[in-house]
Amino acid sequence: MRRREFITLLGGAAACPLAARAQQPAMPVIGFLDLRSPGTMIENRMRGFYLGLKDAGYTERENVAIEYRWADNQVDRLPELAADLVRRQVAVIVTTGGGVAVLAAKAVTTTIPIVFLINDDPVRLGLVASLSRPGGNLTGINILTGELAAKRLELLRELVPGAARMAVLVSPTNSGTETTVRDAESAARALGLQIQAFNVSTIREIDAAFATFVRERTDALFVAGDPFLSDRRVQLARLAAFHRLPATFALRDYVEAGGLMSYGPSITDAWRQIGIYAGRILKGAKPAELPVVQSNKFELVINAGTARMLDITVPDKLLVAADEVIE
């Protein structure tokens, strides 16, 4: 074989795999938008999300790419971060930073599917027409934390029967704050409790709130379910322990950080469902036809070590009812 023919043949062989790669479809991209920062994101949540994607047939960097956008608890950054994902032409946007995050995404696109995770009523927020038939480009998971206020207060009262003055800690940026406070106040009246709500949106405001709790001799604390407060779970658990203030939280993450007790939805299960929905949309499902999933798995978690430190004896009734007791 002449040298020129050999080079031509070699060049053609080398071009074949390049051409084959060029013909492969582009990897779909998920846009991930969250109010918080990656450094404080709890590992089991992301693990649940990735597991849901895998259940739907997708694995990051193998057959799907993910563009992450974190607002670092700066609400005013969300609109530009959402707009950036739209410019990136992602296939679906996943929002997990509460109502403010999904509203920011909704404002910049009516065509890109959006899968949300919120603890407020998506119908009331105007995100979907109904839970069973969303009707637009949004669907997702509705974790019921605000609606559980009465049950959480009841459980805290069983744990601390002498409590009379209760504080409620909420974040003003959360779309569900008003509902949470209203439900907590109604439940407190039924239990004969005095209650006062405190809005916090910075670390310093949390410190100031606890100083007020001490000054006013607050008996117990109710912490609302909220992305910002979740980010500050270690600070909240430590302050409550330091000031010997019994506290109830919406999610188990706080109790794992040293908080006394939580009652609320299984957050890992909710994040897994987000991944499943994102994967189904990548395969062609329309968000308008995917019903909003509401929490149906709830868990009571008690930190027995924190209870002992606060000189609280956990009633046998609660120990038996608890899904997990952390020693």
Structure report:
By secondary structure, this protein is of the alpha/beta class. It has 2 domains: 29-144 and 266-297, Response regulator (Rossmann fold, 3-Layer(aba) Sandwich); 146-264 and 299-326, Rossmann fold (3-Layer(aba) Sandwich). It contains 13 helices and 13 strands. The chain has helices at residues 3-23, 43-55, 78-87, 99-108, 149-159, 177-191, 203-215, 227-231, 233-242, 252-256, 267-282, 304-309, 316-321, and strands at 29-34, 65-70, 92-95, 114-118, 138-142, 165-170, 194-199, 220-223, 247-249, 261-265, 293-294, 298-303, 324-326. The strands form 2 sheets. It has a 7-stranded mixed β-sheet with strand order 7-6-8-9-10-12-13, with helices on both faces. Strand 3, helix 4 and strand 4 form a beta-alpha-beta unit. Helix 3 packs across helix 4 (99-108) and helix 5 (149-159) packs across helix 6 (177-191). The longest helix is centred in the first third of the chain and has 21 residues, at 3-23. It is elongated. The N and C termini lie far apart (78 Å). The model is unreliable at 1-23 (pLDDT under 50).
